Amino acid sequence: MNIFGVMDVSGSALKAERVRAEVVASNMANAETTRTPEGGPYQRHHVVFEAQGGGTFQDSMTSQINSSTGQSFGFKSVFAGGLETGMSNGLTAANLTPGGVEVTSVIADASKPLQRYDPQHPDAGPDGFVAYPDINPLTEMVDLMGATRSYGMNASAITAEKGMFNSSLDLLK
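^ thats the sequence. predicted structure below, dont judge the formating
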């Protein structure tokens, strides 16, 4: 991971949580939609997240050490001779390198629509029932709060790293 790794990871999470919040807002906006261009009521949508990368911590360390581009910021010289000790103290290939997140898809909920008796509604069937989307406003609000909290946490991580950069630059003055 490069020096901007935290910002890359948190930036990907900000994008993913923004999409999640948009999907939740769309679900709430269409909670009473009984007619769509595809026919039938609106269907609730879900966001599917997937971790980016997937390399191991050891792979990342090895690639940083073996980097011939010279952009390892002196990492090889700082940890020369001590890496093997560090690797044997719990830093194993089983520890995954933390990576970003991406939205792989937005899928429609397969649940059946809710049937409400409303014979005066223009979309009412011959029996007087209308098909409404199976969207619970409380569930959507909980999802929205989760997206908001996650967005805030990642924004805080970016702010913290920005503070670390500034502190490092102050040391170099």
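The CA atoms of residues 41 and 55 lie 43 Å apart.
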